[in-house]
Write a structure and sequence with these properties.
heterodimer, A: about 260 residues, B: alpha/beta, Alpha-Beta Plaits, Rossmann fold, seven-stranded parallel β-sheet, about 25% helix, binds flavin-adenine dinucleotide, binds adenosine monophosphate
Chain lengths: ~260, ~400
């Protein structure tokens, strides 16, 4: 079977610091990592490949340095990878990103399932997966906490929603977005690491995907970021220091809504 | 590029913008002025960084004015839970009324197998019009029928704004609709307003794990679509005297076509709490040290009628289950009271709880960042404070 996993290279948002004087992001020296959610998507695809046979192809759209997440995926066990990269792709919103990713899936041909992470930690939109499904006109199952069964022509998966679990059965080909609950990602193997060092990753650009500048990148994006600001700091309130008795008495007053004068 | 970055004469070539540019599009030339390359995405981050206010982004807002003018009104997608509209739907209607400023019509689309428990309530909560799409197969949310119905309604009614909750439902179907209609969608908005000059919807949302707030517009295409974070917007006080129009949608074969069927729905068991619904959330972090100590928090939560949450550090250590994780990769909670115990207050945790009405924190480190934004902070050892607190509350309750 033919599985595709879409992974994204993201800045480690835990390392992003705020310049409090100017109120801007400091991204200098912030490491780039594979979007943590995508590791579950990758593992899920590899799990089913190991069971049913076939190949797992990892794709990412990003600048040349995004190649490193593809190598990482190969070291973890992906079979091959494609870097979707072109100056024209820069500045894409989720519409343009998914338009481009969908073109790559079409170009690969005969794909049975495309796996996405639940969301990317930089944009946090969770929109790319469903939007690719719309582009391809495939069914989708989002927020998958467990894949129960996968076969040549169908899948049964559990979708974790606010009020419980939906068990959904879908035809293939399908688009899935995978939650952390689904599996425990494997660590890179020695063999994988060797393979990833040698592998030549093909790069697909605008021409390879038969796309135009108007439908990709910033030009193809219906949405635009007009302002960015750092969130209003919620100013710290009163800090209590003292004996345990004093602290407990005060905290109990607050929690029980008793005389906030304390 | 639809727009450009202006570098004014006041630029001193200090180079600060070069450092902040996320796509490395800026450099300083040999006459000490900033120059911008075609890699610029007009993200505006540099504009805020410039100490001399020498940078400005000019968007050439595109779009065919005549085409855009065909769209009017606001459409809200209703989400049903147990036969009634979910709280998030009322929030959306309240927000739509606010955006409408008495001028735009607010319509609500309800897709369900039984709308009897919804229509009245929706009108009383602010809907001018309720569009019912009722079919026996619409018992559980499913992508394709919802996509077909919503797309159909948008094409028929041309709303200028479409809102859905940023729940597993809204986040599933809205991107699908936006791609099908080739228009933009902004995820998980926490603030919406209409720009008085352009009339455009300014959609503000957290990004980069809550480190920045981005305001996004959809200037060339319509409708302007947003998913909105539940718990942020205010519903309107229901008004039983309100009246509204009710439209029954004809369900076509196309609308019920579905390649991914819901076989079964397993509701969360009654004893499994949903931390997003709780009035009081007491969360433990790495400071809790082990799973047994979480019993302390459970005891306290039990006494106060609250529920227990956790930081990712506690979840990753296996001390408590993932559905209780608060934060960027967990859940967003907005309880009346949030008590953070042994949690440092990392940004990824903060984004999941900062809209709580009040935040109390217990931490032994006076410099913990949680103390920079909590309502009242308590510096001390949780292993002394929490057991004593449980005793104190039991005593007062007697
Ligand atoms: C992509 C990404 C996503 C993330 N998503 C989330 C998320 O959704 N939710 C989340 O919470 N985190 C998330 N994180 C992790 C986050 O960055 C922090 O690492 C995490 O929140 C820290 O948890 P903590 O506060 O419990 O632990 P720590 O930061 O280790 O803090 C423990 C605190 O306990 C205090 N303490 C210790 N012992 C005691 C005692 N006896 N009495 C009183 N106080 C004590 C310490 O002073 C310290 O301040 C994410 C990180 C990344 C990179
Ligand atoms: N540029 C990209 N290249 C490849 N996959 C992506 C890209 N952006 C997003 N994705 C995938 O889409 C998922 C959701 O991302 P987002 O919609 O940005 O939250 C991610 O977890 C990835 O699987």
């Amino acid at each position: 079977m033919k599985f595709v996993v879409a992974v994204k290279q993201v800045p480690d948002t835990a390392e992003v610091r705020i310049d409090s004087e100017r109120g801007t992001l400091i991204r200098d020296g912030v490491p780039s990592i594979m979007n943590p959610f995508d590791t579950y998507a990758l593992e899920e695809a590899m799990k089913w490949r190991d069971e049913l046979g076939g190949v797992v192809t990892v794709i990412t759209m990003g600048p040349p340095q995004a190649e490193s997440v593809l190598k990482e995926a190969i070291s973890m066990g992906a079979d091959d990878a494609i870097l979707i990269s072109d100056r024209a792709f820069a500045g894409a919103d989720t519409w343009a990103t998914s338009h481009t990713l969908a073109a790559a899936v079409k170009e690969l041909g005969d794909v049975d399932a495309v796996f996405f992470g639940k969301q990317a930690i930089d944009g946090d939109t969770a929109q790319t997966g469903p939007s690719v499904a719309a582009s391809l006109d495939w069914p989708q199952i989002t927020f998958v906490g467990k894949v129960r069964q996968l076969s040549q022509n169908s899948i049964t998966a559990e979708r974790y929603v606010e009020t419980g679990t939906q068990v959904v059965r879908s035809e293939l080909p399908v688009v899935l977005t995978i939650l952390k609950d689904a599996n425990v990602p494997r660590v890179p193997s020695l063999r994988g690491k060797m393979k990833s060092r040698k592998v030549q990753i093909p790069v697909w650009g605008l021409a390879d995907l038969a796309l135009t500048e108007d439908e990709t990148g910033l030009n193809g994006s219906p949405t635009k970021v007009v302002v960015t600001a750092t969130p209003e700091p919620r100013t710290g309130g009163q800090i209590h220091e003292g004996s345990t008795e004093e602290l407990v008495a005060k905290l109990a007053d607050l929690l029980l809504g008793e005389g906030s004068e304390g | 590029m639809s727009g450009f970055l202006e570098i004014k004469d006041s630029c001193t070539g200090c180079g600060i913008c070069v450092k902040t540019c996320p796509v490395h599009a800026l450099s300083i030339n040999d006459v000490k002025k900033a120059v911008v390359s075609e890699d610029c995405t007009l993200c505006s981050i540099c504009v805020d960084s410039c100490p001399f206010e020498s940078l400005a982004v000019h968007h050439s807002f595109g779009g065919n004015k005549e085409e855009l003018a065909k769209y009017s009104g606001i459409l809200v997608l209703c989400e049903m839970r147990n036969g009634s509209p979910d709280r998030s739907t009322y929030e959306l209607i309240g927000e739509a009324r606010k955006l409408s400023a008495g001028e735009k019509e607010v319509s609500v689309l309800v897709i369900t197998d039984d709308a009897s428990g919804a229509v009245e309530k929706l009108i009383q909560s602010g809907a001018d019009k309720v569009i019912k799409a009722v079919h026996k197969s619409f018992k559980h949310f499913s992508t394709e029928p919802w996509n077909s119905v919503l797309t159909h309604v948008i094409k028929e009614y041309h709303p200028e704004i479409v809102l859905a909750a940023a729940t597993t439902t809204g986040r599933d179907v809205m991107p699908r609709v936006s791609k099908s209609l080739d228009t933009g969608l902004t995820a998980d908005c926490t603030e919406l307003r209409i720009d008085p000059d352009s009339g455009m919807l300014m959609q503000t949302r957290p990004a980069f794990g809550g480190n920045i707030m981005a305001t996004i517009v959809c200037d060339r295409t319509r409708p302007q679509m947003s998913t909105v974070r539940p718990g942020v917007m205010k519903p309107m006080e229901p008004d039983t005297s309100r009246t509204g129009e009710i439209v029954e949608l004809e369900i076509t074969a196309e609308m019920v076509k579905n390649r991914s069927q819901v076989l079964e729905f397993i509701p969360t068991a009654g004893d499994e709490v949903d931390i997003t619904e709780a009035e009081i959330v007491i969360s433990g972090g790495r400071g809790m040290k082990n799973p047994e100590n979480f019993d302390l928090l459970h005891d306290l939560a039990h006494l106060l009628g609250g529920t227990v949450g956790a930081s990712r550090a506690a979840v990753d250590n296996g001390w408590i289950e993932y559905p209780r994780q608060v934060g960027q990769t967990g859940k967003t909670v907005q309880p009346a009271t949030y008590l953070a115990v042994g949690i440092s207050g990392a940004i990824q945790h903060r984004v999941g709880m900062q809209s709580s009405d009040v935040i109390y924190a217990v931490n032994k480190d006076r410099d913990a960042s949680i103390f920079e934004f909590c309502t009242e902070g308590f510096v001390g050892d949780l292993f002394e404070i929490i057991p004593a607190l449980v005793k104190e509350i039991e005593k007062r309750r007697k």
